[in-house]
Each structure stands twice: as structure tokens, then as C-alpha cells.
């Protein structure tokens, strides 16, 4: 799909992977709406790229619908959706602090998995009535999983389960979207330099980076954005989950 002139929605667009993706899309000529729970961060970034900032809690269906309706009113039906909103909880099932609260597990599923589906369903609804492009496409969605979906570590039961759900969602969603000309792919990043990792001591960041076979460093959000762009622009990519991890395979801890 040609990005120039298209309406695009990026969840989690105020920071990290989402911010880099929103900038990439804006630079490529898209009309970008940044959906984020942290509206202040979204507004600040939107101001620098000429985008539209909208507050959205992806775990709340009504919030997602309101944000999509506002984006559609401003930019038209979305042709591009990139889902970067998410949380990364870390807690053992049972530890010296007690048993993991069920609510903690539910929240990870609600934000990471249900939040992905909540936006995907809105894309399908909005794009289904649009005229297909020259390639036959109506829209493309890029979701974000994690290599934890495959090699979840100790303390990542909730996170790994939620991201495993995103992986499992990809192919059936792509199959359903086929008759509508809507492609669905997923990126499974490894260890990337996001706000959460930047808060760690420099020595800890370097140690994590050195665990990656090559290149032995943290991934850069712009590298995620570059892969998202390639997926968007290549119409044959559909129903695929692509690891972006420098050949990292995580151990138990």
C-alpha cells in the first residue's frame, strides 16, 4: 500500500515504538492519529509531526470506538492501523510477596490482547465500505506481539499469554480480512529501547543489549517503524508474524 495520503491510526503513539511509527507514517505523507492513554505525551508528539492526538484506553471498547470515530471525522476511514499500545507486567504466580492477583493477569489480557482486537474490529468495520486501492487492498493492520509469546520468562505468565494471543489472532484475522482486502500482520520485537528500559541503570541496559547475538544492543524504535513500513508497503505480506530480535532466544530468567 502506498502510504502517501492515507489515513493512519497508531495506538500507543505517544512514546516508544508507537511514537517512532507515527513519525515514520507522517514523514511518508500519511494523515496520522495518535491514540494513547497518556494524552499529554500524545499531544506533545502529535505537535511535532503534524498529527492528531486522541485519548484512548484500548482495554475499553467505548473508548476505542470514540477515538476511532474522532479520527475518522478528522481524516476519513483508516487504511492503516499499527497497534503499539501495551503494558509489560512482571510478576511470579507465587512469590515471597504472595500469590499473583488474578486482576493483574486480567489487566494484561485486557490491554495487550483485547485491546488489539478492539482496534482491529474497528478497522475492519471502517475499511469494509471503502473503495479498494489499485492493489485491491482496503486496509492493513500491523499488530505488536513479543518474542515472549514464544519464550516467556519466569514472571511473564500474564505478558507472554497476552502476546501469545496476539500471535494466535494474526492468521485467522488475516483469513477473515482476505475477502475484504484487509491484510493483518504482527511484529514480535525482542528487547527494544523503550521508556521502560530507559529507566533502568545504564549498566543494566548494556547487559540486556549484550544478550542479543547480533547486533549486540537494544533494538531502536525506528527499526520497528522501518519493518512496519515494509509490511504496509508490501501487499504480499499477510497473516505473518515476524520476529525482530537480532536472533535472541530468551532463557528462563
TrEMBL record:
<dbReference type="GO" id="GO:0004316">
    <property type="term" value="F:3-oxoacyl-[acyl-carrier-protein] reductase (NADPH) activity"/>
</dbReference>
<dbReference type="InterPro" id="IPR020904">
    <property type="entry name" value="Sc_DH/Rdtase_CS"/>
</dbReference>
<keyword id="KW-0560">Oxidoreductase</keyword>
<dbReference type="InterPro" id="IPR002347">
    <property type="entry name" value="SDR_fam"/>
</dbReference>
<dbReference type="InterPro" id="IPR036291">
    <property type="entry name" value="NAD(P)-bd_dom_sf"/>
</dbReference>
<dbReference type="Pfam" id="PF00106">
    <property type="entry name" value="adh_short"/>
</dbReference>
<comment type="similarity">
    <text>Belongs to the short-chain dehydrogenases/reductases (SDR) family.</text>
</comment>
<protein>
    <submittedName>
        <fullName>3-oxoacyl-[acyl-carrier-protein] reductase FabG</fullName>
        <ecNumber>1.1.1.100</ecNumber>
    </submittedName>
</protein>
Amino acid at each position: 500500500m502506498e502510504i502517501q495520503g492515507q489515513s493512519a491510526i497508531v495506538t500507543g503513539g505517544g512514546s516508544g515504538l508507537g511514537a517512532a511509527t507515527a513519525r515514520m507514517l507522517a514523514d511518508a505523507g500519511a494523515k496520522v492519529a495518535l491514540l494513547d492513554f497518556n494524552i499529554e505525551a500524545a499531544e506533545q508528539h502529535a505537535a511535532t509531526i503534524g498529527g492528531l492526538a486522541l485519548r484512548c484506553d484500548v482495554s475499553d471498547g467505548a473508548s476505542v470506538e470514540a477515538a476511532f470515530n474522532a479520527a475518522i471525522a478528522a481524516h476519513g476511514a483508516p487504511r492503516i492501523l499499527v497497534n503499539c499500545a501495551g503494558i509489560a507486567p512482571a510478576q511470579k504466580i507465587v512469590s515471597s510477596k504472595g500469590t499473583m492477583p488474578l486482576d493483574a493477569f486480567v489487566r494484561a489480557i485486557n490491554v495487550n490482547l483485547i485491546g488489539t482486537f478492539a482496534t482491529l474490529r474497528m478497522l475492519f468495520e471502517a475499511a469494509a465500505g471503502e473503495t479498494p486501492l489499485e492493489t485491491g487492498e482496503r486496509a492493513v493492520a500491523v499488530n505488536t506481539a513479543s518474542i515472549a509469546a514464544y519464550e516467556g520468562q519466569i514472571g511473564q505468565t500474564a505478558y507472554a499469554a497476552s502476546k501469545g494471543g496476539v500471535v494466535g489472532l494474526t492468521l485467522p484475522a488475516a483469513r477473515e480480512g482476505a475477502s475484504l482486502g484487509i491484510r493483518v500482520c504482527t511484529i514480535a520485537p525482542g528487547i527494544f529501547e523503550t521508556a521502560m528500559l530507559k529507566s533502568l541503570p545504564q549498566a543494566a541496559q548494556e547487559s540486556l543489549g549484550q544478550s542479543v547475538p547480533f547486533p549486540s544492543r537494544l533494538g531502536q524504535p525506528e527499526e520497528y517503524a522501518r519493518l512496519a513500513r515494509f509490511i504496509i508497503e508490501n501487499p504480499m505480506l499477510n497473516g505473518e508474524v515476524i520476529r525482530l530480535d537480532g536472533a535472541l532466544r530468551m532463557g528462563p530468567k
